[in-house]
Amino acid sequence: GFTYDELFTTVHFVETKSFWQTVSRYVVFNNHLFYSLSARVSWLLIGRGEWVVRLPSFIAGLMAIPIFWCFLRDWMNKEAALLATFFLTIHPMHIVMSRSARGYSFLALGTLITSWLFFRLLKDGRATYCLAYILSISLMVWGHLYGVIVVLCQALALLWYLWQWKIPLKNLRLIWLSIGLSGVVTFVLYMPVLPLLLLELFREKSGLFDSAFLIKVLTQYLWTSSIAVIVIVLLFSLWALYDQRKEKPVFLHLLYLCAPLVMAWVLKMRAVGFARFALFALPSFLWVTSLGVSKLSVRLCKERMYIIPLILVLVVTPYWVNKGWFELDSSGFRQALNAVPKDGVICALGGDAYLFAYYGQERVKVPK
């Protein structure tokens, strides 16, 4: 069955009377516009069902795996790239978000695609890369508003690379032009909901900075609350970042990893408190962690460098797979409706009354 957020998305934005209703309604940051549109197309083409509405998210989660592999192979050895890709494949956070009818897997996929195109544009300023970069940024941000953070990280990284790295003037112009044009395209895409979006931003109240937010995010990345494990993995990651500090993608990955914490501190918004909004930095975290494991294996085992990664895989796999399986829950709407006698009529009251109608159909009556 659908979780609460999935059901809210399906009822209000997917199974609507028109496409215009899908792209022009915006309620409490719940409408991930590009995802809702994709899920609506899936619903119209295939029919009704939970798996149908979740299909775009599932496809995006699958696509992220080979794209992550291709991106890694440009910057690290084969063994470390394989380890990081494997970890992404079985990661509970990636699995849960890839089966959810929400835009988080689109955000993760968009981060990988735009990052890959970002470095391609710096190296080879082709018009095709430019167009693909504009399109991928626009759709990523249209899919989830926090995609703006990914673009800001890339813009900051570009300023750093200007100082550290010789970039052809033509490529430099192209990438700045691409970022600017993607902003225009994104603005146009958001125009139907812009008044409602600004109203929600105005209503969203600032709160106290959550000092535990970093721990929450790391807990999601490692899927454990063990402080000892978190500290050990952080040490691996810091070692890898220091060892690879002169490599070109390191600064961008570092920005991705720091962005959620900085975002929480600067905005101080309640919405920032959801660790799942930091999903875009998960591949970067797995990148530096796998690199740290690879470096340690070479240092300690030399020719038998596969031993430590293999032990890690054998320990982590059953734990993550088991944890990920138990995270595949629902909010109980379908079970609640099944518990009521089939010939019974249900009166639903309140703002979420219509959510019961998805499973209850004509049995659910919502008085005006």
Folded structure, characterized:
The chain is 71% helix and 1% strand. 40% of the residues are buried. With 368 residues, the chain is an all-alpha fold. It has 18 helices and two strands. Helix 3 packs across helix 4 (50-73), helix 4 crosses helix 6 (92-98) and helix 13 (227-243) crosses helix 15. The mean pLDDT is 85. It is globular. The two termini are 27 Å apart.
Keywords, separated by commas or semicolons:
two-stranded parallel ribbon; mainly alpha; 368 residues
Distance between the termini: 27 Å
What is the share of helical residues?
A: over 70%
Average pLDDT works out at 85
**Overall SS class:** mainly alpha
Beta-strand fraction estimate:
under 5%
Instruction: Count the beta strands.
Output: 2
Reported for the largest beta sheet, the result is: 2 strands, parallel
What order do the SSEs take from the amino end to the carboxyl end, as H and E? HHHHHHHHHHHHHHHHHEHE
Strand order of the largest sheet: 1-2
Radius of gyration: 22 Å
SS element count, helices: 18
Q: How would you sum up the global shape?
A: globular
Low-confidence stretches: none
